[in-house]
Each structure stands twice: as C-alpha cells, then as structure tokens.
Specification:
CATH superfamily of the largest domain: FAD/NAD(P)-binding domain
Strand content: 15-25%
CATH architecture of the largest domain: 3-Layer(bba) Sandwich
CATH topology of the largest domain: FAD/NAD(P)-binding domain
Strand order of the largest sheet: 17-16-13-14-15-12-18
Low-confidence stretches: none
Mean pLDDT: 96
Distance between the termini: 11 Å
Number of helices: 13
Oligomer: single chain
Length: 406
C-alpha cells in the first residue's frame, strides 16, 4: 500500500507516523512544498511549542474550538490530550504543564518535538520529500495521481494536511474535486489602535481583564498585553477567534470595551474607592492604587479620567469618581485593523466538516482521500488547542488510511 501525505506540518507528520504504526508494510511518503518540514512547529509558542492543553474532560476540551466543537468531541474520544501527552513522553519527550494548562516540552524548545518526529520517521522508514509542490491531482479508479512541475506520482491513499490557507485560491484544487469549501478568514490576530496613547504602555500586562466587542455578545477573558501597535494577549486573541467572521465583515473596524478589573462590577469598584478615601484621605491617587493593576496603567487611567496628578483621595469629587469608575470597567478603544499573531497565523474555514467522516477523517465523496489538521474547517483559541486538533485528526486519518481497503 502506498500512502501519500501532502503537507509536512504537525498533522502530516502525525498522520504519517500513525499510518506506519498501523501498517508497517505500507510505503508512506510526506510531500512538502517548501524546503523545510514542521516550520510552524518550530516557531510556535515563541519557539517553545505549546504541544497541547492539559484539559482532560473531552466535552470541556471541545469548547475551546470556535469552529469544530461537536466534530472534535467525537474525535477526542479516540485521541485526546492525555493520549497526546502519553504519546510524546513514551518517545522520550518530557513535558511540563503550566498553571494555565498549557503543555510545553520540558526543554522549552520546539526542536525537541521536531527531533521526535524526525526520529520516528527514520525509525519507521517514512520517506520525506521537500520542495515538492503539488500542482494537480487526479482521482483514478484505483488510487490517486499527484503531479508536481517535474514528476507524477501514484498513491493508493492520500492524506491532505496542507494547513490553513489564507486565501481561497489555496483550496481551489480541492473545490475542483467537488468538495465543499468554507471561505477562509483570519482567526488569531491582535488589534491595531493607530495613534492611540495606550500604546505608550507597550509591554504592560494586566493579568485579569474582560474585553467585549461593542454592540456584540462577543467577550474575551484573561491577560491583556499592550503592544506598540495596540492590544494582544489571550483576552484579545479569544475575541479574534470567536469573532473571526463577524470582525472580518466589519473590515476590522470596530470598538472594544475593556474592564481592567475583570469580574468587578460598578458597585464593588465604588466600595473600593470609598475605602481608599476613608483610609488614605491625604494621599494622592497616583500614589495610592487600590486595584491589582500596574502603576503605569493606573496613572494612565487616572489621566484618561481627567484626574489631576496632585489630587488627593479626600478631594475626589463624585463627578470625577464616576468618570474613573467608567474608565476602570468600561474603557472604550477604537480598533482599526489587525496584525497576525506572531508567525502563528490560524484561519477559520477550509474543507467543510460535512464532507468528512469523523470516525476515519475520510472524504464521504472520494474513498481513499483523507484530511487532517487545519485544512479542515477547525480552529481553536490559543493554549495548545490547535496542535491538539492536528494530533487527533492526524492520528485518526493516518490509522484509517493504513487500515481501510478501498
């Protein structure tokens, strides 16, 4: 049996290794269009590779996917986060779980993951071919014909793992096979705020925030990072993922409302301010911070609320206090554009999940054709969830392709 894997990324390698484990006699080849394999794994997590998330409740795990939740819930019953961690540790990759659930190699180096895959491929005789750009594919009665500009290859089975495509044109060749394609749009991105003074706080992190899209039910929670172009961090990236299509329709021109105090409501904020008045009446507000935000952010929010630097707590009027309360829990910013989150672009869209048998990752229309990874209309929020989807779908696709007789 000859199995071709088109795409040398996370899902492709996992599928190839799974295929050889299921059927050691199969000839498995990974075809990668660029000169480097696993390039996205290399840069992910700041070069550390967030392998998965230690969320071991399948139902809860699946809720971290804006697209693909119900599909993955079934797939995770076959290969979940615990299985992923066991898989890597059994192959000598020691892992470390952080308080937020993110799982990284203990080495803090993505090369540990890459080396693991390359070793597995050498041990199992998976052939790796770089600089092989597929420019056409034919479905034959007994298999598939795959052509590059220089040669044509034949495979009994094909596994497509080309990743997310930023433009629809990257998926046209699959649409020509009669597969339904969901229009791709960016999913994980940061918010640009040109000329906004908040950017002067570049590098400032507020650990617990709640951010909402004005006029929408979309909400993100968690750390917020101020950057030289605007805002990033988990709270922002959650919003960009859940609101991928909605924000694209707005052409990335919208407003957000930030609660810098996370869960605190107006009444609780007012109580805290009144306690400061009573306890430190003669101290200046700039020197006496009642909340767990940074001094730089506190001073910025005071200035934004029109609080003079010399103002003491006993001098804080009701009108000024109202402005300050509103700024702390309902701080409005205009977003004008987006920036890709580091090198880790993720897209919503791809091959429609209605085309795929979740039990095998095989096309319902074309026997012998399998899919895994982000080429499918699946995407997760940050925290190791996108890689987990790649491992799961790759494992099922590879195992099924090596087993199923068409």
């Amino acid at each position: 049996m000859k199995i071709g894997v088109i795409g040398g990324g996370a899902a492709g390698f996992f599928a190839a290794v799974a295929a050889k484990e299921k059927n050691p006699d199969a000839k498995v080849v990974i075809l990668e269009k660029s000169s480097k394999f696993l390039s996205k794994v290399k840069v992910s997590g700041g070069g550390r590779c967030n392998v998965t998330n230690a969320c071991f409740d399948i139902r809860k795990l699946s809720t971290h996917y804006p697209r693909g939740e119900h599909f993955l819930r079934k797939a995770f019953s076959v290969f979940d986060a615990r299985t992923t961690m066991d898989w890597f540790e059994q192959r000598g990759v020691k892992l470390k779980t952080y308080p937020d659930g993110c799982v990284f190699p203990q080495s803090n180096d993505s090369q540990s993951i890459i080396d693991c895959f390359l070793w597995e491929c050498r041990e199992k005789a998976v052939e790796l071919r770089s600089n092989f750009s597929v420019n056409s594919m034919k479905v034959l009665p007994n298999g598939f014909e795959v052509s590059s500009p220089s040669e044509t290859l034949f495979y009994d089975k094909l596994i497509i793992t080309i990743g997310g495509q930023p433009k629809r044109s990257g998926l046209d060749w699959l649409a020509q096979l009669g597969l339904q394609i969901v229009e791709p749009v960016p999913s994980l991105f940061t918010f640009n705020m040109p000329e906004n003074p908040i950017r002067e706080l570049m590098g400032n992190v507020t650990e617990e925030t709640t951010v909402r899209i004005e006029g929408s039910k979309l909400m993100g929670k968690g750390p917020l990072l101020i950057t030289h172009w605007g805002m990033s961090g988990p709270a922002i990236l959650q919003l960009s993922a859940w609101g991928a299509r909605e924000l694209q329709e707005e052409q990335y021109q919208f407003s957000i409302l930030v609660n810098w105090l996370d869960h605190m409501k107006e009444d609780a904020v007012r109580v805290s301010l009144e306690q400061e008045k009573a306890s430190f009446p003669d101290r200046r507000l700039v020197n006496q911070k009642p909340f767990g935000i940074t001094n730089r952010l506190w001073c910025f929010l005071l200035a934004k609320s029109g609080v003079p630097e010399q103002l003491t707590w006993k001098e804080l009027s009701g009108k000024t206090q109202n402005r300050l309360v509103n700024t702390l829990i309902n701080d409005r910013y205009e977003v004008k554009g987006k920036t890709t989150f580091k090198e880790e672009f993720v897209t919503a869209g791809g091959v429609s999940l209605t085309e795929i048998d979740v039990r095998t990752m095989q096309s319902k229309k074309i026997p012998g054709l399998f899919f895994a990874g982000e080429v499918l209309d699946i995407d997760g929020i940050t925290g190791g969830f996108n890689f987990q989807a790649a491992w799961t779908t790759g494992f099922i696709a590879g195992s099924s392709a090596a087993e199923i007789t068409v």
